[in-house]
Specification:
7 strands; four-stranded mixed sheet; three-stranded antiparallel sheet; 2 domains; alpha+beta
Length: 152
């Protein structure tokens, strides 16, 4: 397997098995995480060969689910951008922003009174537009705002 460089994926859906099975979602999630260096040994799963398959599908699905959870934990450990989280929802894998955490933890959150932090502000701040779009910025030591992520 070739390990690829972690490249800051965009917010959104990466595995869509909403009409498929949980096993398919878990398998694709593990495959996705392996591209970023997650280690997975197929031999650790219960065998599903024809001789041993009877009654073991549940064991296999459970073990696959546990590995997919580990893959999610791995991806979250790799994610360096603040307030972004890998998670499952409806048999799909998403990278989603944690809006509520950002609102609570950022020193500055725009409001109707103040759209932008004071000029001497440094650090992460959240801009929320009149339409509800959110953009997380980091104001560096030079006073420049660098976008970390945005979501409409």
């Amino acid at each position: 397997m070739t390990k690829v460089a972690y490249d800051n994926p965009s917010i959104g859906c990466y595995v869509d098995e909403s009409c498929g099975s949980a096993d398919d979602c878990n398998r694709q999630t593990i495959d996705f995480a392996q591209n970023y260096g997650f280690e997975f040994d197929e031999s650790e799963l219960p065998s599903l060969d024809e001789e041993s398959a009877e009654g073991r599908e549940g064991e296999y699905s459970q073990a696959l689910s546990e590995y997919a959870d580990k893959a999610i934990d791995y991806l979250n450990d790799c994610e360096q951008r603040p307030f972004l989280y890998w998670s499952f929802d409806d048999n799909s894998l998403f990278l989603s922003p944690g809006f509520e955490e950002a609102k609570e933890d950022c020193e500055f959150v725009s409001s109707k009174g103040e759209d932008y932090p004071p000029n001497d502000f440094k650090g992460e701040w959240l801009h929320i537009s009149d339409h509800g779009s959110c953009t997380l910025y980091n104001r560096n030591s030079e006073g420049k705002d660098v976008e970390i992520w945005a979501c409409v």
